[in-house]
Structure formats: C-alpha cells, structure tokens
From TrEMBL:
Domain Rod shape-determining protein MreC beta-barrel core, chain residue ranges per copy: 113-261
Protein species of origin: Fibrella forsythiae
Transmembrane segments: 12-29
Family: Belongs to the MreC family.
Keyword Glycosyltransferase: no
Record bears the keyword DNA damage: no
Pfam families with a match to the protein in the record: MreC
Gene3D superfamilies in alphabetical order: Rod shape-determining protein MreC, domain 1, Rod shape-determining protein MreC, domain 2
Coiled-coil annotated spans: none
InterPro entries, per the entry: Cell/Rod_1 (IPR042177), Cell/Rod_MreC_2 (IPR042175), MreC (IPR007221), MreC_beta-barrel_core (IPR055342)
Protein known as: Cell shape-determining protein MreC
Keywords noted in UniProt: Cell shape, Membrane, Transmembrane, Transmembrane helix
C-alpha cells in the first residue's frame, strides 16, 4: 500500500494531466454538436468492428459443433428420403407399394473421418465408429454428396473403410436417363473420376447425365449419387460405351460420413445362396 501511495505521489503531475485531458475531452463532446456526432459515429464504428471480430472468433470455435449438428440433421433427412424412395420409386408400377419392413430396411449412423488416403492404388478411410456403435464389416458408407466405400475391418471404436478409390472396388450403377445398369470402378489414376462399364452403345448418353447406385445391390440404398458423365467414347467393334464420370464425393475434404446398415441383408444373402446351391 505504501508503494502505491509513493507511486501516486511521484506521478501526481502526470495523473492530474490525464484527468484534465479526460475532463476537457468530456466537455468538448458534450458542448459541441459536431464533435459529439463525430465521436458517436467513430465509437460505433469501432464497437461494431470489435463485435464482428468477436462473432467471427465465436463462429470459428463453434464450427465443430455446427458440423456435428448438420451431420445429425442430414442423417434424419437421409433416413426419411430413403424410406420414401423405398416405399415407391418413380419407375415402379402404379399398384406397387413396398411393405413397411422393406421400406425401412436401411438405417444410418453418423461417423467422422479421422484418416483418409487418395494417392495410392488401394485407398482406405478410418472412421470413429466401430462395433460398439453397431458397425459391422460389409456395411456401405456414403457422404452427404454421394458414395464413399464399404466397411472392411472393425474394432470397438474404429472401422476401416475400403474407399471407392480402390482397384478392386466395384459398384452396381444406374445411368438414370438411359435407364441402363452398369458397373462403376476406379482405374487408379485420378481421385475425382471413375469409369462406367457395360453401358450399351445403343443407349443414348449425354454429358452431365447422373450415375447413381442401382437397385441390384444389398449394400447401398438405390439412388445414391456416384457422379455425372464427363466424357463419352466409343471404340471400334465394341458393344459398350467408354464412359468417364466425375465423382460427386470430394475425397479431399471428406469430414462426416453415414454408415449404411441393411437390416435385411442377411435374409437376402441366405435366400440367394440357397438358389445358387440348387443350380
């Protein structure tokens, strides 16, 4: 306390000067309309700037929670959309309607990508969901924008996913406009492109046509976007188009994914194996 009083005593002239300056400034602002308006506008401008910086910092620090909330909301909407599509697709006859168990066979779990490769011939992802969350090998994985891959290995809290950017990955694909089913695969060069095989040369194909997952698989719900036609080629004496598609999923910034469970997959596989055994 004595040191404080000593400091005040030593600096009394400077402190008095500052107080007088503040008092003069106060009288100028309150007795002069021009300076009063100038001070008000200037202070508001700086206050607004400080508030904007504060809001920006707050929004940045809360991005993780915002992304998680958006992923959860997308999960709910994805579930509803898939159920509606399974109840009755646009191509189904007027009298057709799927039973409720079949229509709700696909369920989704949100996962976060914690590792991802795109530069190898065989690429994989690691996600933060495992057997403790009901994840099992063989389940499909999609993103908000399209197909991602298929679960290969699982531990209690982690799973490794075979990316569609894998030399052995194949997926049944539907060229929607032509109504033709083919096979999409990655050739190992560009992580933004795939090829579409087995599309008849006699089917009309245009650049920009959508390619989606077909009904003929038990891993992915039908109608999940794979990509759009980029180039159309035709080799001599070939019966199929040579098609390249731009992938709809950007693997360079993949953050959240949805793991797809087909609750009827086992039943479907069992009955199909029974048919195969009788051949």
């Amino acid at each position: 306390m004595e040191q404080l009083f000593a400091f005040i005593a030593q600096s009394r002239n400077f402190i008095l000067f500052v107080l007088l300056e503040v008092l003069c400034f106060y009288f100028i602002i309150n007795t002069n309309n021009y300076w009063s308006a100038s001070f008000f506008n200037t202070s508001n401008r700086y206050a607004a700037q400080m508030l904007a910086w504060s809001n920006t910092a707050h929004e940045y620090t809360s991005l993780r929670q915002v992304n998680a909330d958006l992923a959860a909301e997308n999960l709910r909407l994805r579930t509803q959309l898939t159920q509606r599509q399974q109840e009755r697709s646009p191509s189904s006859p007027p009298l057709y309607k799927a039973d409720s168990v079949f229509a709700t066979r696909f369920t989704f779990t949100v996962g976060k990508v914690i590792n991802n490769t795109t530069t190898y011939a065989n690429n994989y992802l690691t996600i933060d969901k495992g057997t403790a969350d009901g994840i099992q090998p063989g389940m499909g994985v999609i993103s908000p924008t399209g197909i991602v891959g298929r679960v290969r290995f699982c531990k209690e809290h982690f799973s490794v996913v075979t990316s569609i950017l894998h030399s052995e990955f194949r997926v049944s694909a539907n060229l929607t406009k032509a109504g033709e089913i083919g096979t999409a695969r990655w050739l190992g060069a560009d992580p933004t492109k795939m090829t579409l095989l087995d599309i008849s040369r006699y089917k009309p194909v245009n650049k920009g046509d959508s390619v989606v997952t077909s009904d003929q698989n038990s891993v992915f719900p039908p109608g999940i976007l794979i990509g759009r036609v980029r180039t159309i080629g035709l080799q001599a004496n070939q019966t199929f188009h040579d098609l390249t598609i731009d992938l709809s999923t950007n693997f360079g910034n993949l953050s959240y994914v949805y793991i797809v469970q087909n609750r009827l997959a086992t039943e479907q596989e069992q009955i199909e194996k029974q048919v195969d055994s009788e051949k």
